[in-house]
Every structure is written in structure tokens, then in C-alpha cells.
Amino acid sequence: MNILGKITSIVAPAPGGNGGNGHGDHGDHHQGSDHQPSLSLSSLSRPPPLHSSGFPEQRIVELNLPVSAVAPAAVANYRPVVITGNLAYVSGQIARDETGGVITGRMQTESDVAAGVAGARACAIATLSALKGTLGDLNRVVRLVKASVFVNSSSDFTAHPKVADGFSDVMVEVFGESGKGARAAVGAILPLQSVVEVESIWEVS
């Protein structure tokens, strides 16, 4: 499937989704009071949400994101996800459509950005699937630490951060501020001619 031709939207952006930071990709405390607020029993019985967006698993359903409970299979001699300590390293996830076919294309001009964003969103879905398939529950995710976004692009293409926002926006939609981490967005020649590839590091519980 060539993404620079006719594109079928993989996921519809959620209303009011937050964008990422630009190419920075590389890159109440109150004064003392004797009054203590009372706590109700109902507030004590509810566990606090881990993320500013609430519970990620619930957000996945609300956003109708096609996240799988099975991690995408490795295509060579590596592991899709490696957990060491409280960090999960997710191997590079390429852009695939609903049928599993690779979304191909090469960014050359600003007019290609929308296609690149769709590819980056597909990488986000693959990343969430990899995490869910490994952790069993996305509510175990504490926060995104860093995402490295590789954009299949020509040497004169400069809108890499805009393309990378396709990935970042999904993570903020699901995890709130906890889905906004450090980021790099760079041009590259990618395997299988994928339009985008994203590798990421996560803090997990």
C-alpha cells in the first residue's frame, strides 16, 4: 500500500488531541493552615488514576483504537519488547494498515505531511499493542520516557516533527501528560520502505 496514493485512515484523531512539541525533539502549595479537609469513605475506596487521562485501558475503548492484546511478531533476530528493572524498551514499530500490510512512502514535500502523520499514528497503535501484549495491561504503564521517530524522507524534507506528532498525539490521547516524553525525529531510509518507524522507552510498574 503506497501511502502517497489513496490513504485509508487508520484511526480517527480524537477531538481536542494535544500536539507534540516542535523540534525540541532532540530533542498548590498553600501557606500553613490549621484547617485540614475531611476525607470521605468513598474517596478513600477509589484507587487514584495513574495518568492524567484516567485509566489507559478505558481510554483505548473510548477512542476506539484497534489495539491488539498480542505484540507484533519480530521480523528478525530480536525481541519486540525487553523489560529490565522498571523500563520497557519497545523495538522499532513500522507503519502497518488494518490488514497488516506495510504502509510505504517517502516524504518529500510539506504536502506529504498528512500521509506521514497517518503512518506515525499506525506506529503508535503497534507500540501500544506491543506494550499490552507484553505487560498484559496498559494500566501498568507509568509514563513514556522517550520516543525516537524515524521518517522515510528525502534530504530536503524538513517537517519531521510534524510527522512525529502523529505518534505523540496518540500517546497523549491515551495517557494524558504521562504520554508526553522526550523525543527525537529524524530522516532515514527505512526497512520495507515503511513511511515511519518508532522505537520507544517506557517506565512501567
From TrEMBL:
Residues 58-198 form the Endoribonuclease L-PSP/chorismate mutase-like domain. Residues 34-45 have a biased composition (Low complexity). Residues 11-55 are annotated as: Disordered. It holds the Pfam family YjgF_endoribonc. InterPro entries: Endoribo_LPSP/chorism_mut-like, RutC-like_sf. Residues 23-33 have a biased composition (Basic and acidic residues). This is Endoribonuclease L-PSP/chorismate mutase-like domain-containing protein.
